[in-house]
Design brief:
Elements: H1 2-33, H2 43-46, E1 49-52, H3 68-72, H4 75-81, E2 85-88, E3 92-93, E4 105-109, H5 116-128, E5 132-137, H6 147-154, E6 166-167, E7 187-189, E8 196-198, H7 213-229, E9 233-236, H8 259-263, H9 269-279, E10 287-291, H10 297-304, E11 313-315, E12 324-325, E13 328-329, H11 334-345, E14 354-356, H12 365-369, H13 377-389, E15 394-398, H14 419-430, H15 435-445, H16 483-488, H17 493-506, H18 508-512, E16 514-517, E17 525-531, E18 535-542, E19 548-551, E20 559-564, E21 572-573, E22 577-580, E23 585-591, H19 594-599
Parallel strand pairs: 1-2, 1-15, 2-5, 5-9, 9-10, 10-11, 14-15
Antiparallel strand pairs: 3-4, 6-8, 7-8, 12-13, 16-17, 17-18, 18-23, 19-22, 20-21, 20-23
The structure holds 1-O-alpha-D-glucopyranosyl-D-fructose and calcium ion.
Length: 600
């Protein structure tokens, strides 16, 4: 009896194992039979996107604020770098409560940035150079200075009332206990009727009411306005938040304690996005990328599943925000990091991933993921370039990363500009945290690190402005870290990015190839392959400031070195015991190994 039982167990274990193998094999053979060995091609899958935060990119008129003519003066620079698409953070008319993420007029250019003629000139200049442009669509909320909101606030009977979300108070207090991401309640009392309006972000960013079909038509119209000008798509700000849970019940009572989960993926999100796609996006050859936090991978994948016809791409925040708990930065390990990268990469056939390490809401890439000390800043910035540009997914590169710009050494609170940092200050201190601790954390996590002006040269104000001051302090390390020096030095971070961009664009398998982590448990070395029809690429990155070793299995011999961030003696990989220096990264290639790999 006992033996029968044991054999049944063994049989079960064996068959699981066996099935496992079978499955893997079936997936591959299916892929080939159905011609699904590789994802369907699309220009936005092959593109590398460069994000411009216009306020901090380049000032042309000496007022200390970046502007469109400034961008125009740097188009050749972008062309030289070799990026395919520019994502421009908001350039619309705005009172700048949140640096343009609070729009007063969706059809007007922010005066500080220039005019519509400047915008058209920039767009034409980009197109001449074969660079596409996507703009920021911020339609979860508008500015409270938008005409719609002024009307809406003026009276309960105004036809624009339902463009926003108004509720009466409960027992003389806010309608529910929802908090704003930027401190305090998400409700603000306003107007003659004593009602409250909803704002997930600052008070000056009232949430739009997507339940109202008229509002939705307004949004579709403004999208057409920019698409008809020739922009190539949108980055969609907090798009997962547009459909509100209509009960407006207290957070605890709906069982979703965290605001991100309470606000994101509301019941009509997919319906709204399908409508937007059908009425607008499907009429243009454009790309869309949604900022989509607050959901599980499955929920995010539903947004970008091409069969659903909603949006093309989504930003998953797990990788860029690893270890983050609000403004608090916890320690994290490389093995966790690898798991998150793999999770992002493992989307199904109908999805395509994105990869980014920072944006205008996060610390600098080299300071968070590399080592920004004078000794290791350069090799680690180059290694992170290799990581970003050899992943499976559309890479998003943030301005300044191509020269290894670092976090700013904030010494006091008056150096910050960010509405989030200021808005949360009172709440954080009231919770018993000391200002010193908050400042220390913000020096790792704060949004202003990414927003200090671009360092163009070692001249005054880093060549960002000809004026005496800039809107946010320049990082004092501009004398060492700037574009001018990078352009002159053939071994600079800039030129390394440029070469990698070339390599990616010339090697389709590096774009579409399968992703496999070959050393998921290694604590310091990130090693993976990208396998396509013609070639397999092997990427080996020592993500630590000390020397380390990696044992490869014998199938990884005879790989040819493509590029490395440090001198490598032997261009042919014929030794399976590898020793890597601190932050050493190598990219190897071997031809025609795809079919062999399947058999293995
Ligand atoms: O950010 C969305 C967002 O919620 C976070 O990334 C945000 O930075 C904050 O840390 C949450 O605690 C987008 C924009 O990227 C950001 O710049 C805007 O401030 C925000 O939406 C509101 O429009
Ligand atoms: Ca200016």
């Amino acid at each position: 009896m006992k033996t029968v039982f044991v054999s049944i167990i063994i049989f079960l274990i064996m068959s699981c194992k066996f099935n496992d193998k079978e499955d893997r094999f079936t997936i591959h053979s299916d892929k080939i039979m159905e011609d699904k060995a590789f994802p369907k091609k699309a220009w936005w899958k092959e593109a590398v996107v460069y994000q411009i935060y216009p306020r901090s990119f380049k000032d042309s008129n000496g007022d200390g604020i970046g502007d469109i003519q400034g961008i125009i003066s740097k188009l050749d620079y972008l062309d030289r770098l070799g990026v395919d698409v520019v994502w421009l953070s908001p350039h619309f008319d705005s009172p700048n409560a949140d640096n343009g993420y609070d729009i007063r007029d969706y059809r007007k250019v922010m005066e500080e940035f220039g005019t519509m003629a400047d915008f058209d000139q920039m767009l034409a200049g980009l197109k001449q150079r074969g660079i596409k442009l996507i703009i920021d669509l911020v339609v979860n909320h508008s500015s409270d200075e938008h005409e719609w909101f002024k009307q809406s606030m003026s009276s309960k009977d105004n036809p624009y009332r339902d463009y926003y979300i108004w509720k009466s108070g409960k027992d003389g207090k806010e309608p529910n206990n929802w908090p704003s991401f930027f401190g305090g309640s998400a409700w603000e009392q306003a107007g003659p009727d004593g009602e409250y309006y909803l704002h997930y972000f600052a008070k000056k960013q009232p949430d739009l009411n997507w339940e109202n079909p008229k509002l939705r038509e307004e949004v579709y119209d403004l999208m057409r306005f920019w698409l008809d000008k020739g922009v190539d798509g949108f980055r969609m700000d907090v798009i997962a938040l547009i459909s509100k849970r209509q009960g407006f019940k207290d957070m605890d009572s709906i069982g979703l304690q965290h605001p991100e989960f309470t606000y994101a993926y509301g019941p009509r999100l997919h319906e709204f996005l399908k409508e937007m796609n059908q009425k607008v996006l499907s009429n243009y050859d454009v790309m869309t990328v949604g900022e989509a936090f607050g959901g599980t991978p499955e929920m995010t994948m539903e947004l970008t599943d091409e069969r659903n016809e909603e949006i093309d791409l989504a930003f998953w925040f797990d990788v860029a925000r690893i270890g983050r708990d609000n403004w608090y930065q916890n320690d994290w390990s490389l093995t966790e990091f690898k798991k998150l990268v793999k999770e992002q990469s493992d989307v199904n056939y109908y999805n395509w991933p994105t990869i980014f390490l920072t944006n205008h809401d996060n610390p600098r890439t080299v300071s968070k993921f590399g080592d920004d000390s004078p000794e290791f800043r350069e090799p680690s910035a180059k290694l992170l370039a290799m990581l970003l540009l050899t992943q499976r997914g559309t890479p998003f590169l943030y301005q300044g990363d191509e020269i290894g710009m670092t976090n700013f050494p904030f010494a006091s609170f008056d150096q910050f500009d960010d509405v989030e940092i200021k808005g949360n200050y009172a709440k954080v201190l009231a919770s018993g945290i000391s200002p010193e601790t908050y400042l220390e954390e913000l020096n790792q996590s704060g949004r202003d690190h990414a927003r200090t002006p671009m360092q163009w040269s070692d001249e005054d104000q880093a060549g960002f402005t000809s004026g005496d001051t800039s809107w946010l302090a320049i990082n004092p390390n501009y004398t060492r870290i700037n574009v001018k020096d990078n352009l002159e030095d053939p071994n600079s971070i800039f030129h390394f990015y440029r070469k990698l961009l070339d390599i990616r664009q010339d090697n389709e398998d590096l774009i579409y190839g399968d992703y496999q982590d070959i050393a998921p448990e290694h604590p310091n070395i990130f090693a993976y392959t990208r396998t396509g029809a013609k070639a397999t690429y092997l990427v080996i990155l020592n993500m630590s400031s000390s020397q380390d070793a990696l044992e490869l299995n014998s199938s990884y011999t005879d790989y040819q070195l493509v590029i490395a961030n440090q001198a490598v003696e032997n261009k042919l990989l014929n030794n399976t015991s590898l020793k890597l220096g601190p932050w050493e990264g190598r990219l190897y290639q071997k031809n025609n190994t795809y079919h062999e790999n399947i058999k293995n």
